[in-house]
Amino acid sequence: MTPLKNASKQDSKNAGKPAQNGAHKAAIRQENEEQILAAAEKVFADYGFKGATTAQIAEVANVPKANVHYYFNTKEALYRRIMEDVCDHWLEAAATFDNSADPAVILRGYIESKMDLSRARPDGSRLWAHEIIRGAKFSSEYISTTVKDWLDSRVVVMRGWIKEGKMDAVEPYSLMYMIFATTQHYADFGRQIEIFNNDQALSDAQFAEAKENVVRIILKGVGLG
Amino acid sequence: MTPLKNASKQDSKNAGKPAQNGAHKAAIRQENEEQILAAAEKVFADYGFKGATTAQIAEVANVPKANVHYYFNTKEALYRRIMEDVCDHWLEAAATFDNSADPAVILRGYIESKMDLSRARPDGSRLWAHEIIRGAKFSSEYISTTVKDWLDSRVVVMRGWIKEGKMDAVEPYSLMYMIFATTQHYADFGRQIEIFNNDQALSDAQFAEAKENVVRIILKGVGLG
DNA sequence: TTTTAACCTGACCAAACGGTCAAGATAAAT
DNA sequence: ATTTATCTTGACCGTTTGGTCAGGTTAAAA
To answer: How many domains does chain A have?
Structure first.
């Protein structure tokens, strides 16, 4: 499988298309691309790569189907482009996991930023879930390099905390999987939570409470409470 | 949306088909149905309802496509039948959450049985994930009745524990969502965990360690450690 | 103003889709 | 032995799929 990201943003965005345009033309292109990308993210998030159709993406984007193929040659190219965006956002959340501060502060910050990401961009999380459930066909290289390197380095940091007696001797991988799972659950299983919440989406207050509960349980659970 | 389960197991299993057969014919039917169901669970788990194709199910089951439609009239009927099985298994795990014992024992037992279910039947969990991510189109009634009733009753039990000072004052819903998310993550995101584990599925020993870590973090996290 | 390059889209295509059916094969009931 | 009911499946059907393309429109460049 080819790598998810093997070209610069600019190259992949305008694959085989002009780079320099007049202001008006450029604006048209940008607006149409954004509209199609937003629609595709929704439809892919609902049905996954195989289940989504270009016709439905076009309908949601409110453009003719042929226009979708004008801006993004193939369904796969469109999917890859969106996966890049999702990965970029994930990396932003990952960056909050620095190691310049107190373990409790670091973990809290990371959990909170992942919860916020689930709240702000649930479709990205759901799309990622589809991708992994299906076997990470498009993104296994990205996971085994970028994400794994990041994860392994955090695991080293945490083993340091454990050795220094700052944290309980829990397996860092298990802890990280728990953080991934719990934070993303609020996006991926948002519909289920909504049903449990009497068919109403969580209010901002409810979500804030959930976030605080997640932080508290995990921090205390690893001896940082 | 029609209810997921509106007929007895026997009725839906042999929908419009004979109930009494000679031993040989009955054996043939049972074997073919099992083969098709097993194949369908895999394919639906990979691609979801819309993304899965009856041709692929037939290929995995090693029967002609027409035979799939002979035993299960439509793709939807086949999907519903498998969802029923998944729900039945979930109910078994749910049953381990009794309230006749110590809170720590109860929670440990429930978490462990959910982890074991993820290990033993990952496809069922992945299929459920597809169903919810997509918006619970087929199962919203089941969730809002059977599952919600079960969940709410456990929440009441936990609020009792909190009032009696046996457990920290965490929001029970947040705790349950964390248990759902973390335990199911080992099935739904199994491929990702595999990649992090140097492209090797977790060994029995690794999984047992993960299970123990999950139990320990959660129990301590809610003051039951 | 003319030319050129980009944008737009209805109509179309081959392949894949869920589902049907007639006709043959097999086994149970008579 | 004959009838009856079930199992089996290649061939087929109408629809949907991802993708193409000719020919038109629009705006930037010359």
So the answer is: 2
